[in-house]
Write a structure and sequence with these properties.
Elements lengths: L4 H4 L3 E5 L4 H10 L6 E6 L2 H11 L4 E5 L5 H8 L4 E4 L6 H6 L1 H21 L4 E7 L8 H19 L6 E7 L2 E2 L5 H10 L4 E3 L5 E3 L1 E2 H14 L5 E4 L3 E3 H12 L5 E3 L11 E3 L1 H5 L1 E3 L3 E4 L25 E2 L8 H8 L3 H6 L6
Parallel strand pairs: 1-2, 1-4, 2-3, 4-5, 5-6, 6-11, 7-10, 8-13
Antiparallel strand pairs: 9-12, 11-16, 14-17, 15-16
Helix pairs in contact: 2-9, 4-6, 6-7, 8-10, 10-12
């Protein structure tokens, strides 16, 4: 936070869905700065109470509400300077079986947040999206893809306005709620074999600290309609499972159980078309807003030969980690460090 603490000084920050893994991690960093107030907006009063007890900080204010409810969004948005929009339905299987719930939270709810921020002249909104929004094959990904479109459309319509709306896109966050690493550890503690869906499936490996850094980078550098992606290595699920086994209980079996509803074999973070209008910023890609208008006749061409030389940026063609490197990365994670305090017999 040290690099942007001055920009955060005296600011009121709203985090929707703030009781989740991202919210709790970013709050720890924000409380080290001179922010005026941090508002946590979510539906779950128990998680809010636990977070209130855990942090015990007067700068942290809790609001019960739902992004689906415009009135509750408008009330919490008053006098806010910065919004981190993390509220979402994120589980692929549950969104597959209840797609309209994903629509109401991830699309309509996101639009409520964005429009309320514009109305209240918030300085900046950073929307959190997912790799599953790229070539979406499941309801969760489709709803997140439309979140990105809603954010982009609002940016086009608000280019001269006070509110900058930008987005970030990242894959599964290591050790976050509902992720596979805590499942593996729990299975080992219960004396069971680890279950993997498809051994050759690849995933980007992004620690929560890097996801938070990405969001803060977007806050500091984002312009109207920008989309930011952090570069990350990847590995197969088999290698991840082997690394977890080596750390916690060597010799534990690994069993393949088959792909779940709506899952992909690999994650894609950027398409060819997005890469063509992206800016390489070192550790990050910035994808500039596609600001073309509805006058399509201006854009008929013979095609772009350069596009054929590009490929999507996905977890099959990024740098691949082997077991030893994966173990070293796992050992840096607070969740793994905490679990190792209670050795498995």
């Amino acid at each position: 936070m040290s690099g942007i603490s001055e920009k955060l000084s005296g600011k009121t920050i709203l985090i929707t869905g703030g009781t989740g893994s991202f919210g709790k991690t970013v709050v720890k960093g924000l409380l080290e700065t001179n922010v005026k107030e941090i508002r946590i907006f979510s539906r779950d009063e128990l998680k809010q109470e636990l977070m209130r007890i855990d942090f015990a900080n007067d700068k942290l204010k809790f609001y019960i509400g739902d992004v689906r409810d415009k009135d509750s969004v408008d009330k919490v948005m008053q006098d806010v300077d910065l919004v981190f929009h993390a509220a979402a339905l994120k589980q692929v299987p549950s969104c597959e079986f209840f797609p309209m719930q994903a629509v109401m939270t991830n699309i309509i709810g996101s639009n409520n947040v964005i429009q309320s921020a514009i109305k209240h002249k918030v300085d900046k909104v950073v929307c959190l999206s997912t790799d599953k929004a790229v070539y979406p094959v499941n309801a969760m990904g489709m709803s997140k893809a439309l979140l990105e479109k809603v954010a982009a459309a609002a940016s086009r319509q608000n280019m001269s306005g006070d509110t900058v709306i930008c987005s970030v896109r990242y894959g599964n966050v290591m050790c976050s709620r509902g992720s596979v690493i805590p499942l593996f550890v729990r299975q080992i503690r219960e004396g069971k074999s680890i279950t993997v869906t498809v051994r050759e499936m690849t995933r980007f490996m992004l620690p929560l600290r890097d996801a938070v850094s990405l969001v803060l980078f977007a806050f500091e550098n984002g312009n109207h309609g920008d989309l930011f992606v952090r570069k990350a290595p990847a590995c197969t699920i088999q290698i991840l499972a082997e690394a977890v086994v080596n750390i916690f209980k060597p010799g534990t079996g690994i069993k393949e159980i088959g792909i779940r509803h709506g899952e992909k074999i690999y994650e894609t973070l950027l398409t060819i078309e997005e890469l063509r209008r992206s800016e390489d910023m070192g550790e990050y890609f910035r994808v500039h807003l596609d600001d073309r208008d509805l006058n399509y006749t201006k854009y008929f061409t013979e095609g772009d030969k350069e596009e054929a030389k590009l490929d999507d940026y996905h977890s099959h063609n990024t740098r691949q980690m082997e077991v030893k490197e994966m173990q070293e990365l796992l050992m840096t994670l607070p969740y793994v460090q905490e679990e190792l305090k209670n050795p498995i017999q």
